[in-house]
Amino acid sequence: MxxxxxxPAASPSSGSLRRPSHSHRGDKVxxxxxxxxxxxxxxxxxxxxxxxxxxxxxxxxxGFPNINIHDWANHLRGKHVVFLASFMLEHSETAIFDQLSVxxxxxxxxxxxxxxxLPYFPTGTMERIEQEGQIATAKTLAQIxxxxxxxxxxxxx
Length: 157
Hints:
- By secondary structure, the protein is an alpha/beta fold.
- The protein has helices spanning 37-46, 96-105, 137-146, and strands spanning 3-6, 28-32, 50-52, 55-59, 65-69, 80-84, 113-117, 155-156.
- The protein contains 3 helices and 8 strands.
- The strands form 2 sheets. A 5-stranded parallel sheet has the order 3-2-6-7-8, with helices on one face. Strands 1-4-5 form a 3-stranded antiparallel sheet, covered by helices on one side.
- A hairpin with a 5-residue loop joins strand 4 (55-59) and strand 5.
- The protein is globular.
- Residues 30-147 form the Ribose-phosphate pyrophosphokinase N-terminal domain.
């Protein structure tokens, strides 16, 4: 592996994660790209229904992603999942493809729902074709996001 970046959250089986103090703790799980680790921690502190999941964002020697959702794969069934994404290329530690790979994988763990929060839609400046041959990249990215597999419960949004 060339490089890895782990979010600081603990896995559900580790002792460093505070256990639920009431029955609703952990009804929702937040995953994020490395850029939003701090925001995810703040959201978990503000709303006790949230627990932060842990992802290792690595890459193989050839540069392709080597990503791992730690332990949470066994604990996502029936949970509401939020993914904080960043597609700002100049400020992003994690490639769009890597993040899409996680988004597309989460529903296979029988999650109840997946909400993708993308604060900035980078291709929004190219939403229409003004001359022949131009590509509306906003539409392409919107179609890719819309193709996120549906979840066991309410789907993806």
